[in-house]
């Protein structure tokens, strides 16, 4: 699993094994709900939540509480327990609930292990695609056990650019949206975690994303960094639990710098 772009000390194999077991548990549970009859509720911000969101997170929490009783757990549906713990597991049980409830297969499961607020393990599970992206910044990134790395693309005008949450960016930052529409050699609109996973695997060169929560971006951060990429907020600051949810992912530092200039220009 060693990535030639990384030479930091390793994370324990036991911890990684547990993360993979949780991903398998969550992916199996999500497939059991997918394209079935779902009870749907709407939160105060009008975002939907289904029985699957709650059920998957409940199963993951039960596993983590049994195996790591001294760790905190921060999940989208059931909140933050153990905020004072040095080690915390962060969970998004169904990343892309709107995709999930409409039968669209590009929803994910996100899991991260944080130490002092920084992820040292990240997992992006794609239950309907049978894909699991795993990242350990000190060791590298894999897709279903095979090593992956980001592309070597350094130029925005030659890049494959994904714009996530484009409708929200257009609403809140119309001038930036107009610039993004003139950027990249190829651009696509998308949502949720999969474009970032494709970036880690070298298929996508850059992703501009918006209005995320820590459980959306911290697990992804570990995977992208482990694959050799760069992910920060729109100001170039490191991502943490207090970040404002505006993120840029890029395959290289040069491409990341160019995107920062565009976003802040």
TrEMBL record:
GO molecular function: inositol monophosphate 1-phosphatase activity; metal ion binding
Cofactor(s) listed: Mg(2+)
Keywords in alphabetical order: Hydrolase, Magnesium, Metal-binding
Short name of any one Pfam family annotated for the protein: Inositol_P
Domain of life: Bacteria
Binding site for Mg(2+): 76, 92, 94-95, 216
InterPro entries: Inositol_monoP_metal-BS (IPR020583), Inositol_monophosphatase-like (IPR000760)
EC category name: hydrolase
Keyword Magnesium: yes
Example of a GO biological process term: inositol metabolic process
EC number: 3.1.3.25
Family designation: Belongs to the inositol monophosphatase superfamily.
Name the record gives this protein: Inositol-1-monophosphatase
Gene from which the chain derives: suhB_4
């Amino acid at each position: 699993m060693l990535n030639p772009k990384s030479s930091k000390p390793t994370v324990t194999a036991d911890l990684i094994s547990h993360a993979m077991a949780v991903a398998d548990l969550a992916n199996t549970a999500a497939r059991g709900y997918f394209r079935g009859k779902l009870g749907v509720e709407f939160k105060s911000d009008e975002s939907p939540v289904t029985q699957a969101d709650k059920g998957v997170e409940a199963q993951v929490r039960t596993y983590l509480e049994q195996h790591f009783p001294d760790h905190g757990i921060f999940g989208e549906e059931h909140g933050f327990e153990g905020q004072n713990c040095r080690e915390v597991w962060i969970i998004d049980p169904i990343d892309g609930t709107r995709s999930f409830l409409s039968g669209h297969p590009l929803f994910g499961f996100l899991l991260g292990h944080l130490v002092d607020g920084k992820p040292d393990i990240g997992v992006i599970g794609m239950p309907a695609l049978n894909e699991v992206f795993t990242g350990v910044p000190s060791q590298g990134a894999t897709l279903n056990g095979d090593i992956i790395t980001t592309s070597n693309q350094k130029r925005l005008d030659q890049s494959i650019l994904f714009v996530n949450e484009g409708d929200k960016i257009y609403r809140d930052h119309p001038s930036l949206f107009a610039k993004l529409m003139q950027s990249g050699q190829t651009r696509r609109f998308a949502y949720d975690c999969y474009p970032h996973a494709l970036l880690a695997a070298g298929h996508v060169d850059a992703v501009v994303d918006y209005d995320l929560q820590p459980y959306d971006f911290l697990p992804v951060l570990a995977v992208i960094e482990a694959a050799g990429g760069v992910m920060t907020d729109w100001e170039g600051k490191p991502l943490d639990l207090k970040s404002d949810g505006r993120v840029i992912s890029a395959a290289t530092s040069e491409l990341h710098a160019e995107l920062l200039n565009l976003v802040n220009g």
